Amino acid sequence: MLATFISAEAVNDWHDAARVVLGTPTNPTAAPVAAVGIRSGTQARWRVDLFASVGYSCFQDVRGIGELVYIGYGEQVAVFSPRNGELVSHSLDGYFGQLFTAIDLESPELGSSVLVASASELLRFDGTGRLLWRMSELGIDGVVVHRVQDGRIFGDAEWDPPGGWKPFRLHLDSGEACPD
């Protein structure tokens, strides 16, 4: 399975794919602000249209992880299951920042779960796409994860832009702060 953002010029190439909508169109003829295409082998299977109501961000990411597709865009993160066609969206506190996987962090401890960073929070999803926890108020303008080690998440969050980053440590299993 391959998932990728589709350019506006290429959306018509996906007209035969099953269509799923993220966000609310402002009217019946409203055009999506972005789209994600999901292929199974060489076949275009699904197209997820994203509408302006999902918010705006200068960051976006899409990943196929196991049998799921994670879409980070605007002020949302969505988990799509091609198996049953279900799309579950989670509003973020501020803009979407980044997706982190075990491969990204070179951490087998993360397993098939995914970490999602927003402007001010960190979320953890399990391998089935279920939200395990959400830790809010880590910063105000960006959250970055550097590593997962010994059951802890190590990262930085920006509190005083530009450049006012402060480190944090969270328990991987609960998202609660670790003592220094």
Concise synopsis of the structure shown:
The chain is mainly beta. Helices cover 2% and strands 51% of the residues.
How would you explain this protein's 3D organization?
It is a single chain. The protein is mainly β and 180 residues long. The chain has two domains: 91 residues, Thrombin, subunit H, CATH 2.40.10; 88 residues, Thrombin, subunit H. It contains one helix and 15 strands. A four-stranded mixed β-sheet has the order 1-3-4-2, with no helix packed on it. The mean pLDDT is 94.
Mean pLDDT comes to 94
Radius of gyration: 17 Å
| SS-based class | mainly beta
Query: Strand order of the main beta sheet, please?
Result: 1-3-4-2
> What is CATH's topology name of the largest domain?
Thrombin, subunit H
Query: What's the number of structural domains?
Result: 2
Poorly predicted runs: none
Report how far the terminal alpha carbons are from each other: 41 Å
Q: What is the C-level CATH assignment of the largest domain?
A: Mainly Beta
